[in-house]
Design brief:
Number of helices of chain A: 6
Order of helices and strands of chain A: EEEEEEEHEEHHEEEHEEHEH
Largest sheet of chain A: 10 strands, antiparallel
Shape of chain A: globular
Largest interface: A-B, 94 and 94 residues
CATH topology of the largest domain in chain A: HIT family, subunit A
Radius of gyration of chain A: 20 Å
Number of strands of chain A: 15
Helix content of chain A: 10-25%
CATH class of the largest domain in chain A: Alpha Beta
Distance between the termini of chain A: 52 Å
Number of domains of chain A: 2
Strand order of the largest sheet of chain A: 3-4-7-9-8-13-14-12-11-10
Strand content of chain A: 15-25%
CATH superfamily of the largest domain in chain A: HIT-like
Oligomer: homodimer
Chain lengths: 334, 334
Amino acid sequence: MPELRKDPILGRWIIIAKERSRRPTDFVIREQIVKGGFCPLCPGNENTTPEEVLAYGRNPSHPPNSPGWEIRVVPNKYPALVIEGDLNKEGVGIYDKMNGIGAHEVIVESPNHEDTFINLSPDRLLYVFWAFRDRLVDLGRDPRFKYVMVFKNSGKDAGASLEHSHSQLVALPILPRMIVSELDGSLSYYKYKERCIFCDIIRQELREEIRVVCENDHFVTIMPFAPRSPFEMWILPKKHSSSYITTDDVSFIALAKIFSETMKRLDACIPDVPYNFVLHGAPMHSEPLDYFHWHFEIRPKLTTTAGFEWGSGFYINPMPPEDAAVYMREAFEK
Amino acid sequence: MPELRKDPILGRWIIIAKERSRRPTDFVIREQIVKGGFCPLCPGNENTTPEEVLAYGRNPSHPPNSPGWEIRVVPNKYPALVIEGDLNKEGVGIYDKMNGIGAHEVIVESPNHEDTFINLSPDRLLYVFWAFRDRLVDLGRDPRFKYVMVFKNSGKDAGASLEHSHSQLVALPILPRMIVSELDGSLSYYKYKERCIFCDIIRQELREEIRVVCENDHFVTIMPFAPRSPFEMWILPKKHSSSYITTDDVSFIALAKIFSETMKRLDACIPDVPYNFVLHGAPMHSEPLDYFHWHFEIRPKLTTTAGFEWGSGFYINPMPPEDAAVYMREAFEK
C-alpha cells in the first residue's frame, strides 16, 4: 500500500509509491515512451487494463471492457494511491503518515492510437470534458476524498509514459497544498474587496487585451501576469463558478472549442511541444464559493526546474507573457 | 532590466528575465553543456567574465582578474537580477511588480576544468564553503537584499549550462516563498513545543538511525521523512544555529568532510547523477532565531515533475528514504 507522509516543517504531503523494488541505478535510465509495439490503451487490449469505470459510445448490447468505445476510463495499473482501505492516520515520533488511499484513473481520449489531444475533433474533446465531469461527480460520493486532481502529461519531457492520448485523475484524501494556497489567497482578496479575484483578473485582461490569447462567449484564454514558465496559459469561464461539475451543456461545447483553439495555436507556435494541463476547482463536498473560480492551467514544458526554483519556489521565466500572447494571437497568420 | 512580478492569488513572485529576445521555437532546442571548447571559467579567460568580486589563493602582487586563483567569484554574465537600481515597487491594475534588483554570482570552485564537486579535495571544498560565507556577509550589508539563495546545479538535467564546476548565488529583494513557509512552519512548532523542530528531527533520527546517511562530531546527513524525490538529503549542524555565517572554523572543516562523504556515497550509488543543492538559512539582517536551523538540501534529479506535482504541489516518490539510506550507508561496501 502506498503511504502518505507529511513534511513536519512545511506541512507538505508526499506519496511514497513503491510500485516495484528498484535499485538506485534504475532511476538513471529514464523511461522512454514506447513508439509502436503493444499499446494497453488500444481497442482489443481492454483485458490488459484494470476493469473500466466509464465508457462512452459502445453499443449497449456489448459487454464492458470490449471494443467499440469512444472514450474509456480505467484505473491506473500502477496507481500512486489505492482505492481500498482506511486512512489510518498515525504519528511516528514527530512525524505524521497515513495510508495511501485514493483513486488514480486514466482517461483514454480516443480509440485511435494516432490521435493527439491537439487534433481531437470538437465532438471527441467534448466527450473528454464530460468524462472529467462524470468521474468528478462519481468520486465526489466517496467521503474519504477531499480533492480530485484532473491533469494531462503530454510528451516525455512532461512526464508521459504512454504514447496513446490520455489524461489522468488522482482522488486525494487531503487538500493539496497548491489548492489550499489558491483558496487562501482568493479568500483574502474576497474579504478585502468582496469580489472574486479571478473575475477581476478576467475583467482587467479583457479590457487591456495584452495577455488575452483567444475568447468566445463563455470562456477566455489568458497568459497570467506572473507565469512560472514561457507560454503558461489559463482557460477560465467568464461567468463566475467555483466548480467544474456545474458547467452546463452549452458551456461545455464552448470549452471544447476554446481548448481546441488554444492548443492548436500553441502547436502552431511550438510544434510538438511537451505540456501539462491541470484542472483547478473547489474541493469535493464544498458549497459554491463566491471567492474561487475554476479554471484550467496549461504549462508547455520548456524550461528545466533547477536548484534556484527548487529551493526558493521562485521561478525565472525568460519570456514576458505579453510577448508570448502576441505570438499566440498571430499563430495562424504565418 | 529584469522584472519581478507577483501572482495576485498565490503571492508567488516570478522573475521575467528577458536576457535576449527569443522566438517561441528557440525554447525547444534545449541548451546542451558544451564539452571541450572555450570555457569562460578557466584560468586565462578571466577577461571574458564580469569583474571578480572575490578570489582566494592568488599571489597578492598579481592583479585581480588574472590567473593564479584557487576559488573565484564573479557576477553572472546573464544575470537573473541586476545589482544597480532602485526597487520601484508599483501596481499595474490589480497586479504588483518591481524592478529586478538583486545579485547573481558564480562561485568557480576550482581552476581545474576537469575537477568535479564530488572529487574536490577537502581543502578546496573548505574554500568553497568559506566563499559562500564571505559572499553572504558582504551581500548582507546591502539593505535592499532580504535573502541570498546559495545553490548548485550539476549536470544538464539539473539545469547546469557550463561544464566547469561552479555554484551560484542569487540575492533577492524579497523573501522567497519556500523560506517563508519554512520559517512559518518551524515557528508554529516552536510556539507549541518551545523547541526547534530541526533539533527534534536530528534527535529522533540519531536515535532511530534508519534515515541517517553519515555523521561526524558537528554535522549529520539524513534522508528527510517526507522526501520529494529519491535520495533527497539534508545536511544539518548538530548544534542549533539559524545562520550559516556564524559557523566556526572547526565546524567548516567538519562540513567539508561530511559534504564530501555524502556526495561520494551518492556517486557510488548512482554514478554521475545530476543534482542540485541549496543552502537554507535565516533571512539577511535577522537576529539569531531559536526556531530555525540552517541546513543544506541535496536533490539528485531522478524524476520528472509532471502535471500532478505541478498542479498539486504534492510529490510522488517511488523510493522510501529508509531504503535509500541503506543504499547510501552501504555504498562503499560494494
